[in-house]
Amino acid sequence: MTKAFRPLAFGLTLLCGGCAENAAKIASGGKVCERKSIRTTAYTDSEFTHRRWGVKNAVGSHLESGEINSAAADWSQFPVGTKFRIVENNKVYVVDDYGSALVGTDTIDLYMPSIRQMNRWGTRKVTIEVLEQGSYIISLKVLKTRQRVRCVRRMVEAIEKKVPAMSEASALKSFCKEGMRSLCSTICRKVTD
Q1: Which of 31, 48, 116, 158 has the most CB atoms around its CB within 10 Å?
Q2: Which string of DSSP letters, residue by residue, matches 93-110?
Q3: pLDDT for the residue 39
Q4: Domain at 130, CATH number
Q5: CA nearest neighbour of 25 among 34, 12, 36
Q6: Is residue 69 included in any domain, yes or no?
Q7: Which of these, 19, 152, 159, lies nearest to 82 by C-alpha position?
Q8: Pick the residue with more confidence: 152 or 28?
Q9: In a domain, 27, yes or no
Q10: Which range, of 91-105, 116-130, 174-188, averages the lowest pLDDT?
Q11: Does residue 183 lie within any of the structural domains?
Q12: Is the pLDDT of residue 27 over 60?
């Protein structure tokens, strides 16, 4: 093989390897929508800045820790219902909360059940695989009632620039029918009632 074709062959090998890895994930039911490196922080319901809300997230259900964990993010970057996996520890999270310090950033705040675990996590750069994209429509529905808060207004403005003009009712129905109902049943029940 000539020297000119070696980089091409190497690149094709990497591409095929990546496709095979994603194909294996899809075959096992873990479809990968996107893979990216992001900054993460951690929070807990017992830290001073979160005591006001207790164990509730932004959609009114309990913060989760276990098989699927709660996460907070800027909903204009990661809309409510976004399900992702951290590659380094294989934990799965769902964005069901937001925080004012996260607005305008690509940072995701991971829920931890204790202050000790929160402090142990600290701040880390991790690779995530987005398994299911959340809904900007549901995010808007939840946020529009809270626009007196500046960070919420910023998220609403950013989401409205991204969302195509479609009827809110039809968007909610399609979102809740697409298998996201099991993931975000609380959200779908609250906004379609």
Answers
A1: 158
A2: EEEEE--GGGTTS--EEE
A3: 97
A4: 2.40.40.10
A5: 34
A6: yes
A7: 159
A8: 152
A9: no
A10: 174-188
A11: no
A12: no
